[in-house]
Each structure stands twice: as structure tokens, then as C-alpha cells.
Design a protein that fits this description.
The chain has about 240 residues and is an alpha+beta fold. It contains 6 helices and 8 strands, in the order H-H-E-H-E-E-E-H-E-H-E-E-H-E. Helix content is about 25%, strand content about 15%. Strands 1, 2, 5, 6, 7 and 8 form a 6-stranded mixed beta sheet that branches. Strand 3 and strand 4 form a beta hairpin. The N and C termini lie far apart (about 80 Å).
Length: about 240
């Protein structure tokens, strides 16, 4: 009887050993990313940390100041069942100019360091600099497609009925308070009266005017709900989870 040929068996064993060794060398983090697509913990999308409010207060630009605007963001997030991501606090993206010895408040300084994601898990911006285009302009993802409300719905924009693309910011294009005597915050977001000021707004859809900035497109025609609606708004806010 000829001797048993063991070469194929040995080769198969060697190949299995090699594959086992290579698998052990693959970093655990790479395997984890492959399982979750590089997104949030547990395989799901990152928690929502940015949204546009689905509704204002119905009282024009009057939110009772910054604290009231922050509370409005938090209330809508809670009603939508959004957990506060990583212990952050919801902040409205609003600026205030210096007045009566009080220093200016810049919207960009209120919202944390980022990153921020919408209700679909899409990253809106990685950092404050990314959000405001400090290094490269228009590098954020605030568009009609991705600037969703707290429930993940698109917000009406230019061409929709009604158009509600005017988002209150009181800010310049870099996210800072606007200097000067002109009221661009409707008396610090406490006024709903016309003829006494206005509020700077941005266009979340980047459409509808020569200046299509997401945060500093034009001043409203007044502070009442009717005046905000007349120029394409509903008193809506950008809300960010600040870390």
C-alpha cells in the first residue's frame, strides 16, 4: 500500500492557522466600526444634537429672552422624545449685543464645541469653525434637506406654502452679535411689537434672497408674528446641544 499523502491536509491546517492569526491582529475598533457603519454607539445613528424648532411661541420674536428661547428648545426636544445627548444642554442659536454694561453674547459661543447631528444622524458640522466656515466657507450641512426639525421633518422653505425659512439668529455671518444702534434682536427677544425694531434671520434652505446665509440673511420687517410671516418666517429657532 503506498504511503498516505498528507500534504493537502497539512496545507489546509496551515491556512486555517494563518487566517486565525490575521483575525486576531485586526483592531477591535475596526471590527466595531464595520458593525455599526462608523456611527453611534450600539449600531444606531448618533443622538440628535441639532434641530430647527417645528414651531415658535406664536408671539412673534418674543421668547422672554435667551433663557426662554433655550427653554423652548428643551421643551420641544422633550416632547419629541429626544434624550439630551451626552449630558448636554439645549441652547438656542441667538446673539445679543452689548448693552447697559453687559458684554455681548455671541451665538457661536453658546452652542458648545460640536459635533452636531440631525434627527437622521447626519453630521451638520464637526466644530464651531466648521459650522461658521472660519477656514472654508459653506462647509456645514445646513440645507433644506438636512436642517430638520426635532421630529426629523423638513422645514418649509422658499417656494413652499407657507414659506418659513427665516430662522431667528440676531447674528452676523460669523455667529457674533451685530454692533450698532439698530435693533437686530427685537429687544433681546422680548418684543412682539412692530415699529420698535427687527431681528436678523438666516435662511435654512439657502434660497430666496441675494444673501442666502444660513444665519445672517436679512432683518425682519418687524417683531410681530404677522411681520415675521410676511417676510417668510414663523419665529423659528436653531437649537444646538451644547457640550
Amino acid at each position: 500500500m503506498p504511503p498516505m499523502r498528507r500534504t493537502p491536509l497539512l496545507a489546509a491546517l496551515a491556512a486555517a492557522t494563518l487566517l486565525s492569526t490575521l483575525a486576531a491582529l485586526i483592531p477591535e475598533t475596526l471590527l466595531a466600526q464595520r458593525g455599526r457603519g462608523g456611527r453611534g454607539r450600539g449600531g444606531g445613528p448618533p443622538p440628535t444634537s441639532f434641530f430647527i424648532t417645528s414651531a415658535g411661541t406664536g408671539d412673534g420674536a418674543n421668547y422672554g429672552g435667551l433663557a426662554g428661547a433655550d427653554a423652548h428648545c428643551a421643551q420641544l426636544a422633550e416632547a419629541a422624545g429626544l434624550p439630551t445627548p451626552d449630558g448636554r444642554s439645549w441652547r438656542a442659536y441667538l446673539s445679543l449685543p452689548a448693552t447697559d454694561g453687559r458684554p455681548a453674547v455671541n451665538a457661536r459661543d453658546r452652542i458648545g464645541a460640536g459635533p452636531w447631528h440631525n434627527a437622521s444622524g447626519d453630521q451638520i458640522a464637526a466644530t464651531v469653525a466648521d459650522l461658521h466656515g472660519d477656514i472654508r466657507r459653506d462647509s456645514n450641512q445646513i440645507t433644506k434637506l438636512r436642517a430638520l426639525d426635532e421630529r426629523g421633518n423638513q422645514v418649509n422653505g422658499f417656494g413652499d406654502t407657507p414659506n418659513t425659512h427665516d430662522i431667528l439668529t440676531g447674528s452676523d455671518s460669523h455667529g457674533r452679535a451685530i454692533a450698532g444702534a439698530r435693533d437686530t434682536t427685537c429687544s433681546g427677544y422680548t418684543s412682539h411689537a412692530d415699529g420698535e425694531g427687527s431681528v436678523m434671520v438666516g435662511h435654512h434652505d439657502r434660497l430666496g434672497a441675494e444673501n442666502t446665509s444660513w444665519n445672517s440673511s436679512h432683518a425682519s420687517s418687524g417683531c410681530s408674528q404677522a411681520s415675521l410671516a410676511a417676510s417668510g418666517g414663523a419665529g423659528l429657532l436653531y437649537c444646538f446641544a451644547a457640550n
